[in-house]
Recover the amino acids of this structure.
């Protein structure tokens, strides 16, 4: 048993806030042992937890002191058991109550767990009053690292939410991305916010870029509260209308949406990039595309092929792109990271890895999207739109566009292979044929003939190849 985390000087509101945070992440089969003296706040915690799980359907949660067990259903179809074993006369009565079966497929909260005998790998939540402060308590989370290690983050999350005056909010887990970050939506009446849970000490670049963008009237989410040591940010909720979802629901909006995306880049590129972002020049592009040669050819059954890709890309960048001043590139500029807000400016997400790079980089990121097809006529129109608005040399810009498109897609092939083989995230393999098609289109540009030669013998991601990667 390991002490995972503590929450000191917790009043009733902070205790309930921790319960709401835990309610967002616990799942069927989880058992919480609530320990503490009479009046320590065990039932208060359980009540807040259950009501958070139930959301708008929340019901009264009486103490189970006399009934021993109360059960509840949440909208997700999970049954929640709230037990008080203080009056239990013998551990065998657990079977009669049905708790032993409930622990397999329900969320179970148990007060006075020691009266029921040993439990199998529970999360222990101890509440201890603080001497001289009757309204405050110290909360300790303990359990096995293997099963409960992820719970160590939750007290820090509760502290930030409480400090930001969002303690009454209900948390809902939002879909994650390919990174290790996770996100929660906080709902409190008519207001909402988003909590970003990143690795400790990794939010500095996000905060700095947020401030840079907002200072230039580009709509990155406002930061409401932060604990940068813990890697936690409470930010403005831009809503659920990701451009990807809007395009799927209303395909006819595509010309307008992609036009707005190009206009946003034109505006962004009117500002010199900050000097503290990574410069994505030829050598760095070559280094990053090394992921392709490292992972994809061998996984596809052609070890050693594509070994010269990085060197060729560095040489082509020097020939085709280095004469143009770098602009700020958001790097992951595509429909999954933009929020459609009608006539209001597009909302920006996932920009903490921004770079100083050739102007074509983000344009090709948005128009050669790994996750969705973009009409070739729209792609051509937006390239022309950017060239006309900025006055760049059209021929050189198109050559650099093809080069950067190929580099990005090759790197993505390497990333998707690594995600499948190293991290078990195989869903990205389904995007590989589209990414490969983008590579082939870019290679038709005459200036990229050396890169086409460097890729000879590298197999396309056929079903046989992606199955091979998935099974490796």
């Amino acid at each position: 048993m390991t002490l995972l985390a503590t929450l000191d000087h917790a009043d009733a509101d902070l205790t309930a806030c921790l319960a709401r945070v835990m309610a967002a992440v616990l799942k069927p089969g989880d058992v919480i042992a609530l320990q503490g003296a009479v009046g320590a706040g065990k039932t208060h915690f359980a009540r807040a937890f259950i009501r958070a799980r139930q959301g708008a359907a929340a019901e009264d949660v009486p103490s189970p002191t006399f009934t021993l067990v109360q059960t509840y259903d949440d909208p997700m179809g999970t049954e929640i058991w709230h037990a008080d074993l203080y009056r239990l006369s013998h551990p065998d009565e657990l079977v009669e109550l049905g708790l032993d079966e409930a622990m397999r497929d329900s969320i179970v909260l148990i007060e006075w767990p020691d009266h029921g005998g040993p439990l199998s790998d529970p999360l222990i939540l101890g509440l201890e009053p603080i001497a001289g402060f009757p309204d405050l308590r110290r909360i300790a989370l303990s359990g096995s690292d293997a099963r409960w290690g992820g719970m160590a983050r939750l007290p820090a999350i509760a502290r930030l939410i409480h400090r930001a005056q969002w303690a009454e909010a209900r948390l809902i887990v939002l879909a994650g991305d390919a990174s290790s970050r996770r996100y929660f939506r906080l709902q409190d009446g008519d207001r909402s916010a988003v909590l970003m849970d990143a690795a400790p000490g990794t939010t500095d670049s996000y905060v700095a870029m947020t401030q840079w963008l907002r200072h230039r009237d580009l709509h990155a989410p406002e930061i409401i509260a932060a604990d940068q040591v813990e890697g936690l940010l409470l930010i403005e909720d831009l809503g659920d209308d990701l451009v990807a979802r809007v395009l799927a629901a209303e395909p006819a909006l595509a010309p307008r949406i992609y036009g707005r995306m190009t206009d946003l880049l034109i505006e962004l590129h009117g500002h010199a990039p900050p000097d503290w972002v990574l410069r994505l020049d030829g050598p760095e592009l070559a280094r990053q595309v090394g992921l392709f040669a490292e992972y994809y050819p061998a996984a596809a059954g052609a070890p050693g092929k594509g070994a010269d890709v990085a060197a060729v890309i560095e040489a082509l960048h020097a020939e085709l792109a280095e004469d143009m001043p770098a602009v700020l590139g958001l790097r992951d500029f595509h429909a999954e990271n933009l929020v459609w807000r009608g006539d209001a400016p597009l909302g920006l997400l996932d920009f903490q890895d921004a770079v100083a790079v050739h102007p074509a980089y983000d344009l090709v990121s948005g128009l050669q999207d790994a996750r969705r097809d973009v009409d070739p006529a729209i792609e051509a129109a937006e390239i022309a739109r950017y060239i006309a608005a900025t006055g760049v040399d059209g021929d050189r810009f198109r050559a650099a566009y093809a080069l950067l498109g190929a580099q990005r897609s090759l790197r993505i092939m390497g990333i998707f292979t690594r995600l499948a083989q190293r991290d078990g995230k195989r869903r990205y393999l389904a995007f590989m044929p589209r990414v490969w098609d983008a590579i082939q289109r870019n290679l038709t540009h005459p200036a990229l003939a050396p890169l086409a030669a460097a890729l000879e013998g590298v197999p396309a991601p056929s079903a046989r190849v992606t199955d091979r990667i998935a099974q490796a």
